[in-house]
């Protein structure tokens, strides 16, 4: 599991992409072992093979060489706290690219044109027998010794076995001081205390029912005929001999291999087909009228007009031949026949019913010899002192100024804080953000914190940081503090968040006796307050003659260094009277009802 891999991972990727997800292999037929790797033949292609990984291995990164493994010992910053360790590893179930290349090369030598399609599709069955997504087990006395008094504080695994191409399983553990030391020592041995066990299965095709029916038949027909015919004068002699022989030989074979009971499948339909085929074949073979054993049409000894009769005088002879004294010439005729017919019939049928079986795969790999090979490589083995300044942190608390909490009721939607810490030496910046909403303020959550690491920075400046605040105001654009893209520099452990506008506490009083004398029903006090550079009209107070309290106090918010206008609208039984707006110059207002009664309109 610790052998370095050559950069042939591209070959592995090509094999994985070529492997069909639903491929089936044959159980035993065509299987072979090359370079210690078991190859299984594709059920549909005699020249296609799939490989079965040997054992789980430590996963590697894309370069095919860097192991995805880490073992850390740490020393606690607080002497009263115990030290410990961290173990983290990624596991895959595959073959190194260089080994796959060697297997493919040798396979082509053994079977010209053969190809390696990829890994055998694997699955894992859970305890109840149903298909599961896969799981694997860590076998380790150190990592499995959890709980009070054990070596391991906790163990985390991904819970799924890396059975599909490209997948990886992970195991991580936090160890106490004794467990970290013990595990570290075992990793130096050829066989460590950490093994990975995978139990899975693949589906293979096997013949469950096979029946071969073979029938052969030969029909032989032999015919021999000899005729001699010699004519002299008007005499004729015929000799005829006919010999026929029919030879019939039949042979039928039925071979059946039935494994259906052992495999638990139903084969009655196949047996029924076999019975029908055998019965019909027997009838066909021995049917002398229309079957294979039907005799060929027999040959006659001498057919009609095959031997001519006595020679007669032709027309020319009769016309120009002269007298009746013309000589007559006799003829001698012979017919010789020899015919042999051989009819051969052959019939063969193969009835096969296949099924799939689950073939178990049990494999284990051990993480041995890692420390011996990589003890000086900080990528894999480290000892860390948590008292190092690299682990020191600065916590900054951001709190909304208590004097502005009521602004979230009618003025502020939310406020967000962005923070960043810049480091020297090319280390990446630390950034963070937080948000205060109306719900946070209502629930009393008016303070939130951000913590950033020191990362080895020297001097007092390591506590410096930058921040900026964004205020979302109702019906207004968001206000940034500071404006634009600038940041505020600070080093304080606490920052009070004050809105970009100011708050003024006002007190309003009026002579209620004059309200009744002058017929005033109510008075409405309104303010024009500029917020985010845009004025807003607010009705802040309504005064009536029968108010229990003669004085009202409230607050208003407006941009700093911007004037605020105010006015009063008086309502009487005869109508209303609006006063002219004027700038607010004091935090105390005393309202005196007007003496005029010329107001128009309805009282509210």
Account of the protein in words:
The structure is a single chain. The chain is mostly beta strands and 604 residues long. It has 4 domains: 9-194 and 367-374, no CATH class; 208-353, no CATH class; 389-499, Sandwich (Immunoglobulin-like), CATH 2.60.40; 503-591, Immunoglobulin-like (Sandwich). Helix content is 14%, strand content 45%. The strands form 8 sheets. Strands 5, 6, 7, 12, 13 and 17 form a 6-stranded mixed sheet that branches. Strands 1, 11, 14, 15 and 16 form a 5-stranded mixed sheet that branches. Strands 19, 20, 22, 23 and 24 form a 5-stranded antiparallel sheet that branches. Strand 14 and strand 15 (235-258) form a beta hairpin. Helix 1 packs across helix 2 (97-110). The longest helix has 19 residues, at 268-286. It is elongated and about 175 Å long.
């Amino acid at each position: 599991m610790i052998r370095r891999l050559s950069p042939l991972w591209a070959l592995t990727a090509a094999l994985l992409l070529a492997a069909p997800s639903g491929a089936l292999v044959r159980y035993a037929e065509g299987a072979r072992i090359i370079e210690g790797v078991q190859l299984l033949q594709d059920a549909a292609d005699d020249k296609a093979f799939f490989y079965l990984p040997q054992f789980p291995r430590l996963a590697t990164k894309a370069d095919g060489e860097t192991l995805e493994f880490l073992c850390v010992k740490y020393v606690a910053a607080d002497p009263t706290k115990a030290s410990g360790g961290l173990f983290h590893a990624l596991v895959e179930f595959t073959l190194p690219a260089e080994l796959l290349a060697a297997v493919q090369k040798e396979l082509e030598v053994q079977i010209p044109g053969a190809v390696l399609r990829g890994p055998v599709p694997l699955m894992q069955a859970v305890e109840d027998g149903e298909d599961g997504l896969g799981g694997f087990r860590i076998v380790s006395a150190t990592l499995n010794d959890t709980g009070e008094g054990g070596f391991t504080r906790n163990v985390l695994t991904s819970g799924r076995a890396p059975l599909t191409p490209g997948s990886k399983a992970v195991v991580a553990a936090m160890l106490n001081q004794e467990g970290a030391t013990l595990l570290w020592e075992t990793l130096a041995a050829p066989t460590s205390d950490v093994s990975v066990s995978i139990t899975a299965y693949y589906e293979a095709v096997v013949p469950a029912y096979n029946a071969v029916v073979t029938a052969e038949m030969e029909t032989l027909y032999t015919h021999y005929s000899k005729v001699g015919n010699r004519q002299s004068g008007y005499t004729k002699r015929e000799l005829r001999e006919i010999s026929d022989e029919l030879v019939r030989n039949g042979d039928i074979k039925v071979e059946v291999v039935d494994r259906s009971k052992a495999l638990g499948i139903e084969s009655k339909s196949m047996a029924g087909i076999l019975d029908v085929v055998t019965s019909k074949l027997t009838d066909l073979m021995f049917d002398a009228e229309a079957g294979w054993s039907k005799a060929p049409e027999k040959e006659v000894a001498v057919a009609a007009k095959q031997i001519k009769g006595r020679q007669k005088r032709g027309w020319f002879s009769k016309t120009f031949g002269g007298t009746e004294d013309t000589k007559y010439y006799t003829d001698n005729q012979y017919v010789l026949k020899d015919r042999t017919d051989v009819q051969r019939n052959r019939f063969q049928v193969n009835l096969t019913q296949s099924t799939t079986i689950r073939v178990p795969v049990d494999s284990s790999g051990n993480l041995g010899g890692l420390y011996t090979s990589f003890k000086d490589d900080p990528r894999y083995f480290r000892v860390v002192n948590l008292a190092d300044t690299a682990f020191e942190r600065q916590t900054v608390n951001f709190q909304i100024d208590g004097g502005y909490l009521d602004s979230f009721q009618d003025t502020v939607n939310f406020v967000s804080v962005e923070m960043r810490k810049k480091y020297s030496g090319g280390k990446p910046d630390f950034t963070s953000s937080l948000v205060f909403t109306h719900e946070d303020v209502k629930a009393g959550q008016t303070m939130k914190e951000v913590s950033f690491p020191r990362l080895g920075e020297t001097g007092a400046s390591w506590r410096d940081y930058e921040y900026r605040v964004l205020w979302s105001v109702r019906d207004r654009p968001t206000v940034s503090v500071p404006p634009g893209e600038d940041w505020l520099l600070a080093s304080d452990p606490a920052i009070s968040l004050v809105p970009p506008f100011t708050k003024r506490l006002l007190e309003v009083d009026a002579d209620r006796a004059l309200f009744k004398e002058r017929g005033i029903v109510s008075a409405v006090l309104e303010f024009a307050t500029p917020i985010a550079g845009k004025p807003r009209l607010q009705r802040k107070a309504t005064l009536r003659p029968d108010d229990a309290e003669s004085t009202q106090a409230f607050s208003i918010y407006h941009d700093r260094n911007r004037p605020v206008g105010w006015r009063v609208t008086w309502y009487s039984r005869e109508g209303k009277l609006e006063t002219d707006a004027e700038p607010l110059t004091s935090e105390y207002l005393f309202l005196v009802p007007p003496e005029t009664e010329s107001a128009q309109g309805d009282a509210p």
